[in-house]
């Protein structure tokens, strides 16, 4: 394999949709589906078959209080049989809802908090080899409590959520020490730590373009 120097302009993901020869839903799930598609790479005669999870996308919220502490929630995650420290997050499962509105809704539903300042912190594809899930992490500051009459009744795993604030440096140490494994929490914590070191100059507008937002409905 030959290697080349990559310029700063080249450091970007690019859309490259391949036309599928066939596409079928092989598992119809309660929240998302598993799709099987056959497609061809350029110059290759034989088609490839890939199965992946369709997904409407998700948003997460890295919230900081007036002391610069990060808001974390602890909840049970059945697939990994663990209670994990995470950041508030939720699916983009309301048709036509802007990502920012979904993030604001999730922050209120999961923590009874709202924020005055919103920025795009970082975007990521959760597992691009097996899932269409794209996630946008917002930075939220200027926190205040949602009035009691407007609070959401949490159910399921969310009914057992425990919330708290941690020093951002302690959270970074927990990520690097392998004690926090939630991908959105880990990436959000590290991105916030870097953004703070750059005096928040790396932040983007809350409605910044998001080309990775998935096209699948989930």
Commentary on this structure:
- The protein has helices at residues 99-111, 168-176, 183-197; strands at 20-27, 34-39, 48-53, 58-63, 70-77, 82-86, 89-91, 113-125, 134-145, 162-166.
- The mean pLDDT is 92.
- The protein starts with 19 loop residues before the first strand and ends in a 21-residue tail after the last helix.
- With 218 residues, the chain is of the alpha+beta class.
- Helices cover 17% and strands 33% of the residues.
- Helix 2 crosses helix 3.
- The protein is globular, with a radius of gyration of 19 Å.
- A four-stranded mixed β-sheet has the order 7-4-9-8, sandwiched between helices. The protein has a three-stranded antiparallel β-sheet with strand order 1-2-3, with no helix packed on it.
- 26% of the residues are buried.
- The longest helix is centred in the last third of the chain and has 15 residues, at 183-197.
- The chain is built from three helices and ten strands; from the N terminus they run βββββββαβββαα.
